[in-house]
Amino acid sequence: MQFGFTNTPAIFQRRINSVLGEHLDEFVMAYLNNIIIYLNNEEEHRKYIEWVLQRLYNKEIPIAIKKCEFYTTKTNFIGFIIKLGRISIDLKKIKAIVN
User: Fold this and answer.
1) 82 vs 36: CA distance, rounded Å
2) I want to staple 45 with a disulfide (CB 3.0 to 4.6 A). Which of 21, 27, 39, 69 is the partner?
3) What is the pTM (predicted TM-score) of this model?
């Protein structure tokens, strides 16, 4: 994503939405360069991980594999802590406001 242009985040979000669009909110959510794939069934989960990675590759959207987490039951996604069946606010994100 190039910075310095007025609408770059919106344009990038539209591109991600178009790449993943047919399955957004079905098993994948995306906010800019944050993508989360969620399913309970491990076999289906692997299939959908491959689908998402292949779509990104086909559309030449680079990924930082070192920043990826796979097969985890807890993750931080856009300021929320997501665990199995629970979502909570990441308190580190609101620490500045509280103090």
Assistant:
1) 10
2) 39
3) 0.77
Place of tokens 């190039």: 2
State pLDDT tens for residues 50-70. 999 999 999 999 988 898 988
Report the C-alpha dihedral over residues 56, 57, 62, 67, rounded to 10 degrees. Answer: 70
DSSP string for residues in the chain: ---SSTTHHHHHHHHHHHHHGGGBTTTEEEETTEEEE--S-HHHHHHHHHHHHHHHHHTT----GGG---S-SEEEETTEEEETTEEEE-HHHHHHHH-
